Amino acid sequence: MSTLKKSGRRQIERRYIAEAVPRFWKHRRRVYLNKRIGKPPEELTKLYPNAKITAFSRWQVYPDAIVVTDRSLVIVEAKIYKPIDALGALCYYAEVVYDTPDLQRYKGLPVEKVLICPMPSPELVKAAGRMGVQVIGWMPDWVADYLRSVGWLV
Fold first, then answer.
1. Residue 94 and residue 75 in contact, taking contact as beta carbons nearer than 8 Å
2. How far apart are CA 78 and CA 51, in angstroms?
3. Order of strands across the sheet with 133-137?
4. How many whole angstroms separate alpha carbon 67 and alpha carbon 139?
5. Residues 55, 47: contact at Cβ < 8 Å?
6. 48 in Cβ contact with 99 (< 8 Å)
7. Which string of b and e fits 110-121 if b means at least 16 CB within 10 Å?
8. CATH architecture for segment(s) 3-149
9. Dihedrals φ, ψ of 34, to 5°?
10. Cα dist. 151→26, 71, 148 in Å?
11. pLDDT (tens digit, 9 = 90+) per residue, 70-105?
12. What are the residue ranges in the chain where pLDDT is below 50?
C-alpha cells in the first residue's frame, strides 16, 4: 500500500476517534489520544542489557484512545478498515496499560475494551464478545460518504 493511501486512511481514522469519544463518553474524566502505553524503554533495557534502546520501538503501542470515567478505564480502537485487527491489539493493550507510569494512578479501575467500526459483521461481534471486547457500530454521514467514494457503499 502506498504511503499516501496509508496516511489518508490514518487521518480518516483519527477524525473518526476524535468524534467518537465525545459522542459515546459524555461523562469522561480524562482522555488520552494515541498515547504510548506499556513499560518505558528504560525498564526494558534492564531486561535486555545488550539491546539498543531503539530496538524497543516496535514494542511501543498506541491505542487510539484511553478514556477515564468514574467507573472504568476504557481502551478504544476505532477502525474503518480491518476492524478485526483491533481485537488482538485491544487484548494486548489491556494487559500492558497499567505498566504505563502515568496511568498507574487509575489502577483501581477495571479495564474495558471497545472497538468502534462502521459495519461490524455478526462474526466480528461474536468473536469480540468472547474476548471481552464491546463493539459499537457507528457510521456518521461523512464516513458513509467516504465509504461510497472508495466503492464500499452504493
1. yes
2. 33
3. 30-33, 65-68, 73-78, 111-117, 133-137
4. 20
5. no
6. no
7. ebbbbbbbbebe
8. 3-Layer(aba) Sandwich (3.40)
9. 50, 45
10. 33, 40, 5
11. 999 999 999 998 999 999 999 999 999 999 989 999
12. 1-4
Write down the domain spans for the chain.
3-149
Strands annotated E in 20-85: 30-33, 65-68, 73-78
The grid coordinates listed for 84 are 478485526
First to last CA, the chain: 24
Q: Residue 129 has what pLDDT? A: 98
pLDDT of residue 7: 61
- DSSP strands (E only) in the chain: 30-33, 65-68, 73-78, 111-117, 133-137
Q: Which SS3 state, helix, strand or coil, does residue 136 take?
A: strand
Encoded amino acid at 119, one letter: M
CA distance 82 to 75: 18
Residue 120, SS3? coil
Q: Which three three-digit cell numbers place residue 56?
A: 524497543
What pLDDT shows up at residue 8?
73
Find out whether 69 and 27 touch, Cβ atoms under 8 Å.
yes
Distance CA 118, CA 129 (A): 17
